[in-house]
Structures are given as structure tokens and as C-alpha cells.
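Page 42, continued from yesterday. The earlier attempt failed because a stray header line got pasted into the input along with the sequence. Redoing it now with the clean sequence only.
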Amino acid sequence: MRFRTIGLCLVLLAMATVAAAQTKVTGVLQCGKPEVEQSVPAGDQPDHLFGVSKVSCNWTKAMDVAGFQSKTGTSTSINEITGSNVKAHGQHVSTMATGEKTFVRFEGSTILKEGVAQTAQGSWSYTGGTGKLEGIKGKGTYKGKANPDGTITYEVEGEYTLPPK
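This time it went through. C-alpha cells are written below.
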């Protein structure tokens, strides 16, 4: 009986380890020029501003999350701009080809040249999802580079887990 109990515990432990395993993801996200972009001076120096922006994006290389392919997204952020440096944090909502959504919190920095974004980098974490992606957890990083047309292409990587169903 003792060996059966130990065997059962080992099987359960192995199943729990598999269920909690992180799944790696990568994708490429192209974001257009901001649809909404407003800023106000901080008042302490001429090139110090606080702002808000909203931008629409398309996944040019879809992220495969539990068999669902990311298709589009929208990012909304709060930004602190000091000269050519921007610190941003916000929320990104990705919509999968099937309609499920993932919700991501991000924070990072962007370098500007003559007021136009050139490069960006930061970190992100899932805060939830809909449908079969409800309860998703995970995190990762992103790096962005400006394109000649004013859009930005982000390389995104990370990992996720889904709760057992």
C-alpha cells in the first residue's frame, strides 16, 4: 500500500509540474501612428510633458497562445516625456483570430528624434483574457524599432501558463 501511495504522489506531482509549465511565445507587432495623442507641460522645464496615447496594431507574425493566433491589438499608454526620452506604462489588448482576447500591462521607454519615436523597449505581463484564455498568466519583453513611414515594429517574446480546466 505504501508503494502505491508513493507512486500516486509521484504521478500527481508530475501532472502538476506539466500543468504549471511555462510555454514560450514570440511574435512581431506593427503599430501605426497614434490615433489619440495628447500632452500637457509639466511646468518645471520646457521639454517635460505628461501625455496619453492610443495606437492600433497588427500582428505581422502572430503569437501562438494555446493554439490561438494573435491578429490585432490596441495599446493605450500614459507617458512622461523629458526631451528625447519617454517613460510609458499602459494596457495592450490583443484580439485573436477567433475573437478571444488577452490583456497585457506594459512599461518601458522610448527614444525620440525630433519628436518621433525611434526605438523602444520594455517589459509586459498578462493580466487576463477571455474565453479559453481566461486566467492566463505570464510575462515577457519587447523591443521596437521605427519604420520610415512612422510606424513602429515590435519584437515580442515571453512565456505564459493557463490555469488547469
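Notes: The domain at 23-161 is CATH 2.40.350.10 (AOC barrel-like).
Reminder to self: strip header lines before submitting.
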